[in-house]
Amino acid sequence: MTDWIQSIIESVGYAGIAFLTFIENVFPPLPSEVIIPFAGYVTTNGSLTIIGVIIAGTIGSVLGALPLYYLGYFIEEEQLKTLADEYGKWFMISPKDIDRASSWFEKRGALAVFVCRLIPGLRSLISIPAGIQNMSLLPFLLLTTLGTAIWTSLLSWAGASLGNNYSNIQNYLDPISYVVFGGMIAWYLYHIFKKTVIED
């Protein structure tokens, strides 16, 4: 997976970063924790800038939040839970995940949209209860943009600060990443098998 992410960033640049972060929001198993640090590292050779990476990553992530926001906006919560129960296994979303994100929103209101953009696992899902609660689009976009910009800035800086060490670390990470990715695929297939065969 890391090779695929790197090839897109290296060949398409900012548009690739925006595309990957958009997909990451809709399909969470694609991690921003891999996308943005590598983009930050690429800035050390001059082909990209930190500001450009932050802007591209933020734009892609905000655009990726909109489908989930509108999903919550146009579909009632119970219907969403039913859909999550029936089809969520393919997207790693369960009714409990929706409840968890809704609980955050109910306790903290609009502030949850900002805070959750900094929390892995809730970054994408918080858009659903924001839509369910009919949060106004402008505040949603502003808070999502602010939280996402901070998250992207931190990850970009982390990648850039490693400098040349990133490539050295990558030599050790590549074999590990294949094992981790293989484990993720195996876990994903088991999750689907469990939901489809065992629990049904």
From TrEMBL:
Entry keyword Transmembrane helix: yes
Bilayer disposition of the protein: Multi-pass membrane protein
InterPro entries: DedA_domain (IPR051311), VTT_dom (IPR032816)
GO cellular component, one term: plasma membrane
4Fe-4S keyword on record: no
Record domain VTT: where: 30-160
Subcellular localization(s) per the UniProt record: Cell membrane
Name of a matching Pfam family: VTT_dom
Record keywords, A-Z: Cell membrane, Membrane, Transmembrane, Transmembrane helix
Broad class of the protein's primary localization: membrane
Chain segments annotated as transmembrane: 12-30, 50-71, 138-160, 172-190
PANTHER family in alphabetical order: ALKALINE PHOSPHATASE LIKE PROTEIN, UNDECAPRENYL PHOSPHATE TRANSPORTER A
The protein, known as: Membrane protein DedA, SNARE-associated domain
Organism: Gracilimonas mengyeensis
